[in-house]
Structure formats: structure tokens, C-alpha cells
Amino acid sequence: MYPIIKSNKLDSVCYDIRGPVHKEARRLEDEGHRILKLNIGNPAPFGFEAPEEIVRDVILNLPTAQGYCESKGLFSARKAIVQHYQSQGIFGVDIEDVYIGNGVSELIMMALQGLLNTDDEVLIPSPDYPLWTAAANLAGGKAVHYHCDEEADWFPDLDDIRAKITPRTRGLVLINPNNPTGAVYSRELLLEVVEICRQHSLILFADEIYDKILYDGAVHIPAASLSDDILTVTFNGLSKAYRAAGFRVGWMMLSGNLKAAKSYIEGLEMLSSMRLCANVPNQHAVQTALGGYQSINELILPSGRLTVQRDTCVELLNAIPGVSVKKPKGALYAFPKLDAKKFNLRDDERLVLDLLKDKKILLVQGTAFNWPAPDHLRVVFLPHKEDLQKALLAFGEFLETYSQ
Ligand code: PLP
Q1: Could you read off the pLDDT of 104-114 as tens digits, one per residue?
Q2: Do the Cβ atoms of 211 and 222 come closer than 8 Å?
Q3: Taking the mean position of all CA atoms in its chain, how far away is CA 354?
Q4: N or C: which end of the chain has fewer CB within 10 A?
Q5: Is 102 touching ligand 1 by the criterion CB < 6 Å?
Q6: Does the CA dihedral 248-249-255-258 come out positive or negative?
Q7: Which residues are CB-neighbours of 14 under 8 A, at least 6 positions away?
Q8: What is the per-residue pLDDT across 69-87, written as a single tens digit (0 to 9) for each?
């Protein structure tokens, strides 16, 4: 058979959360091993089920949701999204500014595909949620990473952002609350970022999919509420707070200087119509999700399941010699640092594979999140407390003798 070669558009594209390590875990499962998975932010399989009322809405509407809908999405869903943001102090938007996609993932790809010419740059955090980097590169642009500072509660380093702006920079990505660090940004920090976007005419891409998953009284401030003169594109969806990741429903809302973005908006409308529309039955969950009882609030109470698991995770990680972690203020992840000297670290993927082989525990290496050094890992704290305890005690045991 002649070789069938992948497109060279993929040469600079990487998405290692489901990469070689994930494949190795599946191979071990096929051999009959049970793997403790602390690697993917998928709430439902860990018993964090979607609110019953949104499941019911989908079922009830299924018989009448057989056709395509408007490319941007169902009126009722988009109206609910607009009203939700109005209640958060974001005005001047209407349903035409909202696009519903098959998850935020599809919309991230669309937002960058519609913007970037060859070698146009987007500022993306390091560490990041790696789809942003992959999507920028796939769109022909260039992901330029700005540093987030672990010693400053993982806040973005504003001087690094300023130093990396060039005439080719088109936009800046903020992930708040952050995956993988769990940081939640202050108003002061957000205002500084908005000011940088204003000064350099950058689009602010605000990925706020964890906006309702907050601990210790942390407050999330929507970036779009802080200006009406720059273009802000806000992303959110049903995957995390509403635990319905498999529904594949996300949205993106444009706000601020829409006049200046006329051409970009035409591009987005074209891309949106090219994929016809998002999954229709599941869009019926949006109105009730946003307007209904916010059951996520129970999970993030001090005694709530997510908070307890976060605390267990942080406590056990910090108890391992050579490991330290900042307490996440939001989202579902911890991003611990490993003492590179102590473990003689050179390759974090190797470390994750060694751990998988030895203890049947699956984590993700920090470099998969575009972190430059092989000295961090991401731990998902969705498993039950007992499973987290088992996994992290075994991780500690594994590290006792580990050296690369
Ligand atoms: N943005 C961030 C920061 C995420 O962590 C994720 C998923 O983990 C996504 C976007 C993608 O979400 P969706 O399920 O809506 O495609």
C-alpha cells in the first residue's frame, strides 16, 4: 500500500491530553488492567451527573428537534444566553451576537480560523488549555505563549505579555478560571489585560467555561463586563458547571466594539453556516441550565463534594516530598510542581508513562499544556475522595525511589 500522509497543516498541531499516554492507558485497559484516571475533566463518569431537569428538556424536545436549526443556534437558547450575560452587567448584545457550537471546542477553532492569516500571532497562556494553541496553529497562525507565574498565584505576567506583542498580534486568550492551574483572576489583573488589548487593538478571547466552579468564596468577573470598546469574545457551555460534556453544547458571544469587527463577524457567520448548525436536541437544555436551579453551587460549598476532593488532592500532593501545589481557586484541576533536581527530570511524558505502568494511575504531563519545563503534572480531582487518596498515596510511593 502506498503511504497516505497527513496534511502538513498538522505539523505544528499537538493535543496531548488524548495523546500517546492516553493510548497506552487504553492498551492496558484492553489487557484487563483497571486504570485510575485523573486525566480528563469529564464530570459525569465520576458521578457528577447533569441536572435532571436539563436531561428532561432534551428528552421532551427530541421529537420536534429533527431538523437543522438556524446556523447560530435556537432562538430560545441564544435568548437565554443574552439574558444571562445582561444579568452580569454585559449590555449591548443581542441574539445575533451569540453562536452555539458543538462544545466550546468547535467555537475556539471557528474563532481562530476566521481571524488568522499566515503567521498572525495570538497570545496564549503558558500553561494553557492546549486546544487554543493547536487551533491557532491549525488556522495558519502562530501561538505565542505568555508566562503565568506560579509564585503569583499563577497570574499572567503582564510584562511578558507586553514584551511579546508584535505588529502581527491579533488577539489574547485568557482562561479564567484557569485550566490547568485553577487560578481565578482579580478585577485589577483583568483591567490591566483589557487595557493592553485596548492599546494594541487586540481581540480578547475569554474562555470562561469554569466560571461557576469557584472555591473559598472566589468571585469570577466576566471579562466582557469590563469594557465596551474592545472586542471581547466570551466562551462558555454545558460541559463543566452543568456536567453535560457529552451533550456537546457550547456558546460564544461577541461584545464590545462590534462595529470595528464587521468583517470578522461576516467571516464567523460564513464559518457558522458552513457547518449548518450545532446538535439541535441538546440546545434545548440551555435555557433551563442557565435559568434553572444552579446545583453546581452545592458541589462547591465548603462541605461540597468538589471542594472536599480539591482539599484532599492539595493536601496529599503537598505531603509528598519533592511535590508542591498552589491551592486551586476554581475549575477541576491541580497543577503540581515536581522538584526537577530531586527526580532528575528530563521528560515528563516518560514520568507519566512510568507511573501508568507501575501504579496504573493516569495523569497528564505539564508540557502537554505548553508548559516549557518537564516539571509539572495536571491532576483532575473529579474522582471520589477514596479514589483520590488511593491514587495520590500510590503516586507518593512511586516517587519515593523515582529518578530519570
Ligand atoms: N476550554 C477549556 C478551558 C476547557 O478546559 C475545555 C474542556 O476541558 C474546553 C474549553 C472545551 O469544552 P467543550 O466540552 O465545551 O468543548
Answers
A1: 999 999 999 99
A2: yes
A3: 26
A4: N
A5: no
A6: positive
A7: 130, 133, 134, 368
A8: 999 999 999 999 999 999 9
The secondary structure of 124-173 as a DSSP string is: EEES--THHHHHHHHTT-EEEEEEEEGGGTTEE-HHHHHHH--TTEEEEE
CA atoms within a 13 Å half-sphere pointing along the CA-CB vector of 300: 22
Question: pLDDT digits over 247-294, tens only?
Answer: 999 999 999 999 999 999 999 999 999 999 999 999 999 999 999 999
263 C-alpha to ligand 1 centroid (Å): 27
104 lines ligand 1 (CB under 6 A): yes
Split at pLDDT 50, 70, 90, the class of 14 is confident
Could you give the ipTM of this predicted complex? 0.99
Task: Return the ligand 1 atom nearest residue 237 CA.
Answer: 15
144-155 pLDDT per residue, tens: 999 999 999 999
Is the minimum distance from the CB of 182 to ligand 1 under 6 angstroms? no
Evaluated on CA atoms 240, 139, 175, 191, the torsion sign reads: negative
Contact 177, 298 (CB under 8 A): no
Minimum mean pLDDT among 20-34, 42-56, 140-154, 182-196: which range? 20-34
| Calpha distance 377→180 (Å, rounded) | 9
- Backbone angle region of 156, left / alpha / beta, with phi > 0 → left and psi within -120 to 50 → alpha: beta
Does the C-beta of 110 come closer than 6 Å to ligand 1? Answer: no
What's the rounded Cα separation, in Å, for the pair 292 and 56?
13
Atom 5, ligand 1: residue with shortest CA distance: 179
- C-beta of 130 in contact with ligand 1 (< 6 A): no
Identify the structural domains of the chain with CATH numbers, from first to last.
Answer: 8-49+298-400 (3.90.1150.10), 67-291 (3.40.640.10)
What residue owns the CA closest to ligand 1's atom 4? Answer: 129
